[in-house]
Amino acid sequence: MKDVAIIGIGMLKWGELWEKSIRDLCVEAALNCIEDAGVDHIDSMAIGSMSSGLFTGQEHLASMIPDYLGQRYLPAVRVESACASGGLAVRNAFLEVASGMSEIALAVGVEKMTDVNGGMATYALATAADQDFEAFHGVTFPGLYAMLARAHMQHYGTTREQLAQVAVKNHANGTRNPNAQFPFAVTREQVINSVLVADPLTLLDCSPITDGAAAVLLAPVEVAHRLGRHPLTVITGIGHATDSIALVDRPDMLHLGAVAHAAQRALAMAGKTIQDVDFAEVHDCFTIAEIMVMEAMGVVPPGQGGPATLDGMTALDGSFPINPSGGLKSKGHPVGATGVAQLCEAVMQLRGTAGERQINNARTALTQNMGGSGGSSVVHIVEVQ
Amino acid sequence: MQVPKFWREIPRYYRLEAGKCDQCGKITFPSRLVCPECGSREHSKVHLSGRGTLKTFTIIRIPPDGFGDQAPYAIGIVQMDEGVGVMAQITDCDVDALSIGDTMITKFRRVREEGKTGIIMYAYKFVPDVGV
After folding, report:
1. What ipTM was reported for this prediction?
2. Is the dihedral of CA B25, B26, B30, B35 positive or negative?
């Protein structure tokens, strides 16, 4: 297997982008990425999108996007693993390059979510849950994570303030990210007193509905050298795991098994432990999710995610910064794009080009992307070499 | 939801039909072709008693399409006495009085009407067991 470098990243400003279609979003992110890498060709493409069909009525992105990118006849696939579709697209591009099937592979993540109203968007997102035995009863994604939050509070004593602090911290980071959808600061009081969505979670505990895309370009390390990429950012570990789609089928619903397995596999492949990681971009689709992900990956023991967050451990200047980009909370969560954008942030930090939110001396990054209520997860380790 | 999709699940929705592994005794709801515990492919049909303990719950304030006329409503996960978890709405109660650990029993209730096909979908919901 070849060693694989990230030679280009492509982001754009996320938000409610009324004037842009799903093809506009993909092409803009991909062009930004190809320009960043300075390559004259690509050999294959993987597109991550959770539900372009329900959100826009458009399937068959694997035909449309390469064509509009000026790459007609390119081999392309569209992959789906709910909100982990973006991370999975990067993994797919990684396998292309590592296996030698492609020299240069593009991964694009996208979701165009505002072509439908809120009720339809909520329905589309809920298709990531068990349709016949969860969504059938009227549960929503905030509802599933609200049930996890309530159980976590009851079992571990996690407090409302600790949950709110995740949003406060990520929004504080997002104020330093020019691409963020909601680059404003919030207070714990504002989070707790915002409108209830699913008790105990309020609006400001939830990531938003977002239009956006992101792209990364992968190539063998020797090609990255040839292109003069410096500093060189290399994907040294990939972990991918799945779990039951329904929350009720997990022996301990407070343990995100797919996240734990994906993180262990990625760290093992990189020859690292979680203590070797300098910072992480994780899937904070809801405040409780970031706390549970920290615990599943072993950043802190089970039950300690809330207190550690309140103590500042995961702040930009903490001992283990999480979501310097602002996370899904502030940057936005165009579901299929999120996993790719996490890698864009990792590379910006490792290159030292993250501007006001730069973490000093960052050399090892971890990105964690999650599907549904934890039914799938993809973890990447990226290092400067 | 389409008619065949609802009709197919009637044994689960109306009668809480579950599967029991012939080899290790693991109960699954819905039943599975492969036991998640021991991998056996031999299983028998059983019916859940409808009684269990509330593990967690929430109150949906912002509903998905199709549930707009019902919000706010409570929904929870109940560990059934047979050991398997079941998610459903919690009804006929003061939702502010619900607590993790409450004993629940299932009742046959209308879940919703589907606009396009006009199906009225019925299934189990939970109510607190007040001992009457």
Report:
1. 0.97
2. negative
